[in-house]
Amino acid sequence: MVRKYVFGEPIETEAVIQNVENCTGPLTHLSQTTGKDGCPSFSCKLADEDIVYGLGEAPRGINKRGHIYESFNSDDPYHTEEKRSLYGSHNFLVISGSRHFGLFVDCGAQVTFDICYTDIDTLTIRPSVPDLKLYIIDGDSDIDIVRQFRRLIGKSYTAPFWAFGFQQSRWSYYTADDVRKVVKGYRENNIPLDAVYLDIDYMEAYKDFTVSSERFPDFEKFVSEMRSDGIHLVPIIDAGVKIEDGYDVYEEGKEKGFFCKRKDGTDFVAGVWPGRIHFPDFLSSDARRWFGDKYKTLIDAGIDGFWNDMNEPAMFYTEEGIQDAVDYLKDFDFSCNDSNKFFELGGRVGGLANRRKDYAAMYHNIDGKTVCHEKVHNLFGFNMTRAAAEAFERIAPDKKILLFSRSSYIGMHRYGGIWTGDNQSWWSHILLNIKMMPSLNMCGFLYTGADLGGFGTNCTEDLLLRWLAFGIFTPLMRNHSALGTRDQECYRFKHTDWFRGIIELRYRLIPYLYDEYIKACENDDMLFKPLGFEFPDDEMARRTEDQLFVGSSIMTAPIYEQNAAGRYVYLPEEMLFVRFKGSSACHREVLKKGIHYITASLDEVPLFIRKGRSLTLYSPASSTEKLTRTEPETFSF
Ligand code: MIG
User: How far apart are CA 227 and CA 624, in angstroms?
Assistant: First the structure.
């Protein structure tokens, strides 16, 4: 049962595709107050046993209690505990315990979720604008509420089969030869691989939809050379369009008025990788259509996968921001004896990126109406990805194209997946990856995954092995790392055979994973479920945050601590424990309900099969196109 409440005059986000009558009756579950600024806020008391699930891409736990979160899409490469925002805004919660209900705050502007932060027993939601829609969903169980919500927002994007293969990325492989070397590294070591990513340096001067002819001569031929070796190339597309005379995307966008504006109607300028850029106005349907069609150049060259980046949108600086800093410095009192002023100075000069003041100075044209960016900030990345997906329908309707984005809002799940952005080579980020997966799934993002091995800082062999042992379950299984960090391709480390084993196990699992993934897309279901979703009466299961169900047959309990020989696992029912050494099962044991210590060395993967269910693995292959459903091996009990 879904109730929809409308406040003020909301800007359509297009997150919801089902028609729901406006409810004029009293608000259920929540109490409402209105602030001096005219913005409503909603709150309710929570009982001790209540768990708050949701928020998709957000820091902290599966249970979101005990922190304050702000839905305001942010390019922040330090995903530490105290953070309130990441790249996406997914304003959906399920309250589960003494009572059951779900809520979705449909609003493109900033929304704050104070989940027992200010008051340990109270959930308070504060939108930053008076105009929004609020959906309240009643249901019998957690999954029932999630599925009702998912019906509301429409079916999730389905990725091509090959996108379940192992993928290698780095910022950057600069030349075609760099890419060839990576492929050779994998092929020579017999480690399966399906895709290599092209980060910003494949472009000519960071200009979208160009390819450097110097570093990638005869690109089309190179793409087909890679394809004949089972490799898909996946280029990045950034949100900002370089300002450069003679560059067609710039010239056309300018002439047609497709860029975001300043208040005075001139094109808004920011600085990102290409230097000075304009942002295409993705909130405008005409601009979307125009920008989307640009992907055709690369599709014509044989490309069938893209990742959309910097679409929060991220800004390194604006000229207005620099001017503010310069003005501040001009007036700075150098003889001042106040050390606080020193910190202020640092902030003024160091705080040029992603300024709220700059977002507030940017304007969109939504169906002829001028709208300040602040009001629709969280919809920008969504609509960039939508622009691409809608264009793919026109350009290549028969082709399944891989598409995922960094920034997102609910609704974008119909058009593409997401990756979870710039994490670090930290053990705690394996755990964050585990905890985020079910939350993302609740919000419709099923094709998703983290940068395996960690993006920032230097990865170690053991970290990558343990991370991959979880990554074999995530639809997007991509190793990616930042400029300046240690080489992180699997073959760069000592025990290439250990990596081969784990990645071969992934390929053995793909038939199961892809089937379960497609089923989850079709049935508005989750691929990753917290234990409490299946065992709602088991308090221990409900409080377990480092184990997940993957599809209907598997439970995973990853090892995410350095130098650990194993870990404690809680089994909410009897299960079959299978330990894989590389891709082959080396130990099987039925374990009773309860707590067990299980061991797994760095080259091993622990896996649990649920009672009455089964898992069939097939033989591995060097890439997905060579996968055959041969040599089935079934685990069940
Ligand atoms: O400012 O394109 O999250 O995956 O490698 C950094 C370079 C821009 C951020 C993405 C990351 C990518 C990087 N990009």
Answer: 12
Asked whether residue 269 is domain-assigned, the answer is no
Q: Are 308 and 405 in contact (CB under 8 A)?
A: yes
Distance, CA of 442 to CA of 126 (rounded, Å): 22
Pocket probe for ligand 1: among 207, 208, 236, 272, the residue whose CB has the most ligand atoms within 8 Å is: 236
CATH number where 49 lies: 2.60.40.1760
| Furthest-apart CA atoms within the chain: distance in Å | 79
pLDDT at position 70, please?
98
The pLDDT value given to residue 336: 81
CA 172 to ligand 1: nearest atom? 5
The string of DSSP codes covering 372-421 is: EHHHHGGGHHHHHHHHHHHHHHHH-TTS--EEEESSEETTGGGT-EEE--
Residue 165's contacts (CB-CB under 8 Å, 6 or more residues apart) are 192, 193, 194, 195, 477, 507, 510, 623, 624
Residue 479's φ and ψ, nearest 5 degrees, are -90, 120
Residue 549 host element (H or E): strand 548-550
Q: Which atom of ligand 1 is nearest to the CA of 421?
A: 3
**Two tokens at 141?**
């169980």
DSSP 226-265: HHTTT-EEEEEEES-EE--TT-HHHHHHHHHT-B-B-TTS
pLDDT value for 270 = 98
Rounded to an integer, what distance in angstroms lies between the CA atom of residue 508 and that of residue 501? 10
- The count of residues in the chain is 637
Looking at the domain assignment, is residue 217 inside a domain? no
Domain's final residue, options 98, 130, 153: 153
Question: So what's the pLDDT on residue 423?
Answer: 98
Does the residue 12 lie in any domain?
Answer: yes
Residues with CB under 6 A from ligand 1: 171, 199-200, 236, 309-310, 406, 421-422, 480
Q: pTM (2 decimals)?
A: 0.98
Give residue 104's domain range. 2-153
**Residue numbers in the chain where pLDDT is lower than 70:** none
Q: Look at residue 371 in the predicted model and tell me its pLDDT.
A: 98
| Of 75, 171, 277, 478, best ligand 1 pocket probe by most atoms within 8 Å of the beta carbon | 171
- The whole-number pLDDT of residue 342 equals 86
